[in-house]
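Field reference: sequence -> structure
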Amino acid sequence: MSRPRRTATGQFAAGHSGNPDGARRRKPKALLRIEDIHRIHLEVAGEIVGKREGKPVTRYEHIVRTLAAGKAEQRLPLKDFMDDVRTSSHFFARHEQGRPNQGREP
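Structure field:
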């Protein structure tokens, strides 16, 4: 490949790029599959977020107890998360039974 033309001051001549090969090719980011999204929901729900009477408490248990006590200021997002976790658990249960989701929710 020929070197780009430059003026006497070192600037590129009009109409000649300083990067004749163009930008380097980037590998596209992988898209999340539906299985990945469901797996993430279950992983987050199962994370230990504290202790109660010396026993570990998962995020899901904490949300259930918070809602049951009526303390949740943001009830709808918490309920939405619980619905997502339920959907994800049904998704994997169907796959274990050999009945994939086929694009439908439970």
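Note: Residues 75-96 form the longest helix (22 residues).
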